Inverse folding.
């Protein structure tokens, strides 16, 4: 399985500011995903990030609020813009297995965000 | 779209007993069903998965069963140990459709020593 790291691991931010979260993988992967996990809740997909194309956002998430970059096959960033306390969550990136049509996803350790 | 329900939301068992977590899904086209374990402060870890062409899969103390007709699948943990305490999530997806995973709501398992 891929080794995935995220930076920062946690942060406390002020309302109205933005935070960029980085996701680094130790191998090339086709698909990377960004999830939000609110306290005590399940995982909700924010967007799918493929290298060389615009990210695909799920219902309820927009690019202006969560811009995503995917400059190469091992790296992606998610920015949480103009933050409010409701954005306090764990943000997780995941990657597919790298094997066509296998479907396995592996998750990073998460970024724990608190907005004051 | 797919809807995955998971029960129970919390589960406490004595060490050495078995634990069973159940999930149902709505989309009969779903064909891949992974289970994740999430320990406090960590990301979800894939522990076992099953595909729709298989009815049961085992890996040491962990097993998963799938009933396609009834559209439900279950995680079975035998001989539970305190280190099994965590939140467990089931998920369903359709292969070859962008890897969209639909997650259950999670089960908080506590193994009492």
């Amino acid at each position: 399985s891929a080794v995935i790291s995220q930076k920062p691991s946690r942060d406390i931010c002020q309302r109205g500011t933005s935070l960029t979260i980085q996701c680094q993988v130790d191998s090339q992967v086709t698909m990377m995903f960004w999830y939000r996990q609110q306290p005590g809740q399940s995982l909700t997909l924010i967007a799918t990030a493929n290298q060389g194309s615009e990210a695909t956002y799920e219902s309820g998430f927009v690019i202006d609020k969560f811009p995503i970059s995917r400059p190469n096959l091992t790296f992606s960033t998610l920015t949480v813009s103009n933050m409010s306390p409701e954005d306090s969550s764990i943000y997780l990136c995941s990657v597919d297995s790298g094997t066509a049509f296998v479907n396995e996803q592996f998750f990073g350790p998460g970024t724990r965000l608190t907005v004051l | 779209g797919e809807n995955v329900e998971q029960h129970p939301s919390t589960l406490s068992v004595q060490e050495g007993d078995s634990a069973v977590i159940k999930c149902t899904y709505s989309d009969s086209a779903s064909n891949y069903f992974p289970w994740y374990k999430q320990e406090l402060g960590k990301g979800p870890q894939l522990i076992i998965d099953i595909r729709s062409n298989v009815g049961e899969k085992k890996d040491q103390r962990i097993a998963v069963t799938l009933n396609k007709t009834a559209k439900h699948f279950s995680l079975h943990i035998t001989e539970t140990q305190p280190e099994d305490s965590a939140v467990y999530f089931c998920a369903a997806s359709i292969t070859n459709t962008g890897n969209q995973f639909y997650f259950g709501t999670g089960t908080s398992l506590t193994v009492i020593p």
Summary: The radius of gyration of chain B is 14 Å. Chain B has a mean pLDDT of 93. Chain B touches chain A through 22 residues (CB under 8 Å).
